[in-house]
Hints:
The structure is a homodimer. By secondary structure, chain A is α+β, with helices and mostly antiparallel strands. The first copy, chain A, has helices at 5-14, 21-32, 39-47, 55-67, 132-137, and strands at residues 72-74, 82-84, 90-94, 100-103, 114-115, 118-130. Chain A has two domains: 5-75, Arc Repressor Mutant, subunit A (Orthogonal Bundle), CATH 1.10.10; 90-137, Dna Ligase, domain 1 (2-Layer Sandwich). Chain A has five helices and six strands; from the N terminus they run ααααββββββα. In chain A, strands 4-3-6-5 form a four-stranded mixed sheet. The first copy, chain A, has a two-stranded antiparallel ribbon with strand order 1-2. The radius of gyration of chain A is 17 Å and the shape is globular. Chain A binds chain B through residues 73, 75-76, 78, 81, 90, 92, 94-95, 101, 103, 105-109, 115-132, 135, and chain B through 73, 75-78, 81, 90, 92, 94-95, 101, 103, 105-109, 115-132, 135. The structure holds manganese (II) ion (2 copies) and zinc ion (ZN) (2 copies). Chain A binds a DNA duplex through helix 2 and helix 4.
Amino acid sequence: MITDLEKIKKYLQAVKIKPTYLRIRLLKYLLEKKNHPTGKMIYQALKKELPTISLTSIYNNLELFAKKGLVKILLLDPKEIRFDGEKGHHHFFCEKCQKIIDLPIDCNLIKKKKIFGHLIKDWDGYFFGICKDCQRDG
Amino acid sequence: MITDLEKIKKYLQAVKIKPTYLRIRLLKYLLEKKNHPTGKMIYQALKKELPTISLTSIYNNLELFAKKGLVKILLLDPKEIRFDGEKGHHHFFCEKCQKIIDLPIDCNLIKKKKIFGHLIKDWDGYFFGICKDCQRDG
DNA sequence: TCCAAATCTGTAATCATTACAAAATTATAA
DNA sequence: TTATAATTTTGTAATGATTACAGATTTGGA
Ligand SMILES: [Mn+2]
Ligand SMILES: [Mn+2]
Ligand SMILES: [Zn+2]
Ligand SMILES: [Zn+2]
């Protein structure tokens, strides 16, 4: 678990982002929670400790983080964008309980630098179905 | 090129969808065009020949088609949903020209019925970067 | 401490998607 | 064919996530 604020500050500085307190707390939230939150979910969670924050700042900084490669934007849910503080894995979306589950599994395509001549910079692997728990429950 | 209306009618009936004229034309559009259109793009294209259609009907029937497995919903573009009349391939999105390109390439994960115990019903593979043409052009 | 630049907030606008009721179409039976 | 009920389609309004923007605040350096 990465909680040390100084360490998070360094993550931001490493990609040339000025480490304001809001940004540190936002990145801390993304690195600690594994819940693939929406912008609003992050806003509501951080609001408890930082009552003056705005949803706009959350969105703006999430976009900044994504642009700098600090977080991953997930388009898994057609209703709203979700964010992930960890990169490099596939995702599973359960049609019963709506949970998003990490799939750290090897894939022969994601190592490729080019596919059919197209330069690959990033990738998303989404899987849909019924999760292990929901299968058991009925 | 699949253009025969009778053949498209049979595709609809095969999945228990009543083959109204609008639905036949909508599926015809999706099967003929390879442009991964948005709902609005389809609406504007079909409107030229069917002036009375509504955007609501396009959306409703696209959702119906997707539910019956006739078309694929692409969550590639954060701004809007795109639709694909063909299934079973990965997609590439060029950050320069915004083109969506099919990637009919083998992947060792998509054949799996289960991953970590989760039942797989469908999957999406997205790749992002710079397409072949845009690399050459600069 | 003072100042300019960057960031943040609060509110309003945007716009894809959905909800809903009325009109039109379709299928079925008399 | 005609009547009737069910389904589909239309037109409009509502929803809600995301974005735009201007003013307030914070930040870092002189
Ligand atoms: Mn994840
Ligand atoms: Mn395709
Ligand atoms: Zn589940
Ligand atoms: Zn391109």
